[in-house]
Amino acid sequence: MIIAPQNDGLIDFDATKAKLEQIVVEHGGDVSDFKTRAEILQLFKDVLQKGRARAETLLNEDGLGILCAIRLSYLEDQIITLIYRFAIEHVYPAENPSSSEHLSVVAVGGYGRATLAPHSDIDLLFLLPYKQTPWGESVVEYILYMLWDLGQKVGHATRTLNECVRLSRSDMTIRTAILEARFIDGEKKLYDELIEKFDKDVLRNTSAEFIAAKLAERDARHNQQGNSRYMVEPNIKEGKGGLRDIQTLFWIGQYAYRVRRARALIKAGVFTEEEYNRFKKANNHLWTVRCHLHFLTDRPEERLSFDVQRELSTRLGYRKRPGQNGVERFMKHYFLVAKEVGEITRIFCSALEEDFGQSAPGINRFFAAIPIPSPFKRRKVRNAEGFLIDHGRISVESAETFTSDPRNLLKIFELADRENVSFHPDAMQAIHRNLNLIDNDLRNDPEANAIFLRILTSRNDPESILRRMTESGVLGKFIPEFGRIVAMMQFNMYHHYTVDEHLLRAVGILSEIEKQELGDEHPLAHDFVLDIKDRLVLYVAVFLHDIAKGRPESHSTAGAKVALELCPRLGLTEEQTEQVSWLVLEHLTMSQVSQSRDLSDRKTILDFCAVVQTMEQMRMLLILTIADIKAVGPGVWNGWKGQLLRTLYSEAEPILTGGHSQKSRDARVAAMKERVASRLSDWNAADVENYLNLHYEAYWSRTDVDSAVEHAELIRQADKENQKVATAIKPYEFEGITEITILAPDHPRLLSMIAGACAAAGANIVDAMVFTTTDGRALDTILINREFDEDRDERRRANRIVDLLVQVLKGETRLPPLVKQKEGHKKRFKTFRTKSKVSVNNELSNRSTVVEVEGMDRSGLLSTLTRTLSALNLDIASAHITTYGERIVDAFYVTDLTGAKITNPDRKKAIEERMMEALTGKPKEEPKR
Description:
Helix content is 55%, strand content 11%. Among the domains are: 13-204, Beta Polymerase, domain 2 (2-Layer Sandwich), CATH 3.30.460.10; 209-361, Up-down Bundle (Four Helix Bundle (Hemerythrin (Met), subunit A)); 505-660, no CATH class; 826-929, 2-Layer Sandwich (Alpha-Beta Plaits). The chain is built from 40 helices and 16 strands. The strands form four sheets. The protein has a four-stranded mixed beta sheet. A four-stranded mixed beta sheet has the order 5-6-7-8. Helix 6 packs parallel to helix 8 and helix 16 (408-419) runs antiparallel to helix 20 (462-472). It is an alpha+beta fold. It is globular, with a radius of gyration of 33 Å. InterPro entries: ACT-like_dom_sf, ACT_dom, HD/PDEase_dom, HD_domain, NT_sf, PII_UdlTrfase/GS_AdlTrfase, UTase/UR.
């Protein structure tokens, strides 16, 4: 139990009680009068508001979140006590109470721990001796209505002593709530009987059952929250490494070791003094962030979303440093604390298993990731002195295993990978206590570096082993450059994970590609990955590609320098080092070219080939690009991006091979048409031939077979029904997007009209593919952000967008007023800072002028940009829309109305100025005289 602090100026109990008495006197003792109750309620509102304001002031002064939570709990205790006593003394006084007319007001759940966030629920148990009486029911009702009228959310139950015990046996939630029961006011003897009876009839001999249930709950919660403590918008309460994990440990500690305070776990042998201090420090930091979050948002918000992170970082005093702004430093600290919670959990589990594993073998499955591989519970590891397998997990025979040879701090991870076993909590604890053995001597030891490279390039599961190395602290100590980016977040909406987590996931994806597990998604990479000449180079490049994030200069340039310094230490040759450095330097090139350039323009392909130079480098760059994009987060990779990468590869291949491509462009287009034709088996031959001749070469290069078949059916149905405008909708649940395809007569302003209609309907376009057909029609496909979880709801929303779109294209609705209604910056984007940039370039294409814009996304932006280009009398030949979270990079290939490039300097400058105005929403500032 946590001891409540001194009043701290939160509430004057006696003065408040005196004011209540005064109100009663002023109203002649009539407490049932409406005005009397209104005055009483207002008094409590004032007390609660002033108390919370005082708690926030103290939090800003001392920065102690746990103390703030205790203060708020104390404030709530005093208010509930005042309400209860007022109820039994003035509203429902019992002159001669019977034995059943007794009541104990008990705090349970989180409130029972005597810690309360500013907007947390109030969990109360109204404890009765026997059965409910009219008096008890009335008192409880009065208390609840008063709390509800105060604007508080109250979780409550009214139960007898026996009901509490009986329900606790069958319901783990009720059992957990009563485990933390804390007396507030009323009949103290009744509360004491509950604790005694609960301990005797419920807790005794049921520790194993409770531990298993709570760990299972924790695992289910982690899965629901994304099963990573490195999500860039974490849930501070329910997420992995959050407060609920700490609370779960304390619940188990209370239950298994019969303690009421966390410090008692030292005496129980669970924590050392130092480990307990780490536990306390992590708990305080999480409470500090949570209390500030509630005060900032003025609601029970538990998610550290982007729109609160910046202001929170300011409130908590994080300042900008070279390469990292204040919000990124704040979030890095948060993730390090979440990582610390994971380490504390492992220490705790080690003690649990030692104390309860023998009597409750079922617990073991929550500590071991895989079944025990042999009938022997303990065995030595072959060819590895000092290591053993204990219940299917690797451990060490003694602490001397590390002190006698520090290389064993790396060797244990290699053995875990080789033996396909998880880690014993004792081993992880021993590793943590010996991290000081990782020094420059070990870092420069050839054998130690060889061990690390074997782990990194393992054909088993390198991602999992590297993640355990990170969580234990070994990887960050052995590779200091990696240690700099551990728990580092990038403050943008594009990246879903911290930098270190992103790199580990990328290695895992590379491993899956190499193991031929992603052939359906990445057929090209699947075909040639096994022919890569030097897989070591590829793995090291994937591991290092974002290693220099958080530095003042470009992370690609800085990362290439890091590779040049680090690779020789790891044991790579000069040639391998140069290749890794080049891959890190160019790791964004292939995605940028494929997504923002016209791949049917030969200049684009020639420029790309000048960068990659060889087929081997292009193959490695392609695989690195796939791993990088997929590791960004769920929904970032999609089939379009895969098709664009394959097209870029296919277009570059004949140039890099000196014209001797495995397949010429004509042959590839012919093969694509043949595959589509085979899927249209129910069509007659003439219709198939007509359809295949309907598209230009660029279409067949940039479209996958499934999409081409769907387009064929859409066009056929439109022709059959003589529709000028036809549409199709396809929601993607996992990717979080919805695809809308539009077939309409081609028009210079068509893309602008489509974008405007989407903006008017509140839909945000994140990608677009634009094609024209040989019969003068346009086939445009756009991807919009998904709004609903259920497909049927999302389809309904998409149909509304399509209906509006068709009306606009048919001229039945005027677009500008609709756009004006809906345009405006999204509130969520306001927290970000993105530089705006516009360039007009004639060097990127031999046919067109490329207008490239980069800046902050907002609703209706694409409509504004395309409308501006049309107003400038420019014809959009192709548009390449790329969205990176809150940031857009759009490239428009344009010509004048005669089909020529824009060469006049004054006109180019005018285009830049007008597009910048459209991008920022601000007119150009006139120079001061």
